[in-house]
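Dear colleague,

Thank you for sharing your sequence with our group. We've completed the structure prediction you requested, and as agreed, I am returning the results in plain text so they can be pasted directly into your records. Please verify that the sequence below matches your submission; if there's any discrepancy, let me know and we will rerun it promptly.
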Amino acid sequence: MKDNNITLFDFDSDSDKKTNWRTESIINQDMFLEVLSKIEQLNENNKVKFEIQKIIEAIINPRKDSLGLLNISSNGDTAKVNKDILLEELNQIADSQNIERAKYYITRLKKSLTEVKTSKINDLNLNRWKEYDDILTESLWVLDKRDKSGAHNAGYWGNFIPQIPNQFLRRYTKQGEWVLDAFLGSGTTLIECKRLGRNGIGVELLPEVVEIANKNVSSEENKFNVKTEVITADSTELNFKQELEKRNIKFVQFLIMHPPYWNIIKFSNNKKDLSNARSVEEFLNLFGKVVDNTYDILDKGRYFAVVIGDKYSQGEWIPLAFYTMNEVLKRGYILKSTIIKNFEETKGKVNQKELWRYRALVGGFYIFKHEYIFLFKKVKK
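Please find the predicted structure tokens below.
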């Protein structure tokens, strides 16, 4: 048993992943389950509390582990668990008012260590759902900083923050499934695909941006050996089904689009670029074509996210996001969620805070501090 030589960091003998003993515990799963099963046979609540308290003390201070719960050996299964969550579960058992409730919590804890329960659309283990505390489930996303780790960078004006595809890929896809980004930009979605073990295809109109995307994506480690590809094409005209068939892909399991916010940022002089649309009607027509072109390649029952913001022009707030949302709804999708995401500064306003505050006071409007993420579900073939 590891007793007098436990350090702050150690290694799980099964996974060789570094463990922080302040936040994680590596338990001998067989022994832990055996102890829980013995406690489960008790018929007096006070005895249950007493025995559970021994486990709590061992988790808090491994040097006092007299039960062998943290005895990690090569011939025993181990489980890495979040220490705070494990203690919360154990305390819930100890605080139970009656023996029936205590046994219910014991059974639930055993199940979380022995059974994996996932949905049809992701790999999240719902028996250990409390461990996914970094996955957002509320409709207001306040993200202070963009992820700049690895291949991610903010060098391309107009790319979205990596946390957006990261959240969606983890909640709405499984490892090995296919993701399509129809407005790829500098490659953010495909970088996240490589990190999370999803295959990804991105379509980008501008060759010079494709070059940036390929450089960014190729610099990210491909530890899951997934496939990613950038296609140089116009998403308003591309035959997506044909492109997938060339690659022996029948359907994708998640769609994501981050189109230009009309002409707020002029990305090029290309007439096919949505940022050069002559009117909001033309912008919506072009965007609608992309939705049409991708509809048949998304699996039924799967999800589609659109990241879009509004526009202020000539004294009028133009609800571009909601116009865009309606274009999707016209085509048979249902709306599952509307998410409001904050943003603090854009490249164009980073040194103009006071100027924009003055303009707002004079013009009687409010400065943009948010954008929208619409989540849709395909319910028809």
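Summary note from our side: Residues 140-378 form a domain with the Rossmann fold fold (CATH 3.40.50.150).

Kind regards,
the structure core
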